[in-house]
Amino acid sequence: MNNAAHIQAPEPASPRLKPSDWLWRPWYAKLWWSAIPVWWIGMATSTRIAPLEAFYDSAAAGFLNLLFFPMTALMVLGLGYVQQWVAGFSSTGEGTPVSDEAVARTSKRMWEEHERGMEDLRAGTDIFDPRSGGLYIGNPLSLQHPSRFFKH
């Protein structure tokens, strides 16, 4: 029996898409990019033609200016490319997932740090705690204040 027949060929790497695959290839991208110069040429000619000028001065035209702004098309159409690009980073990592034990240890350590911090905060702001310094010393509500023992 031939062993070469059982050897699997490596999986071909997925073809890396270029930005043009997202920015120009889809029919809606071609339509959008083609409409952008038409819109702006219409705006330029609206200075000479009164009905066009009335339309391009309207609120609807203001919103359409955003739609036909080239950077808007670039950002919207490029979103799929950026998502694919970012997804490529996560699949190339060779890290190991964090175990439940590690998560529990980290969580416990962070909780202990939080409790220590809260205890320090309470010590510095509690008028009945001698560690609060100026809040405790000389405070008439403090049990150590002389006025609590001597009535004038």
UniProtKB/TrEMBL annotation:
Residue ranges crossing the lipid bilayer per the database entry: 31-50, 62-82
Keywords of this entry: Membrane, Transmembrane, Transmembrane helix
The organism's place on the tree of life at top rank: Bacteria
Official protein name in the record: Poly-beta-1,6-N-acetyl-D-glucosamine biosynthesis protein PgaD
Organism: Rhizorhabdus dicambivorans
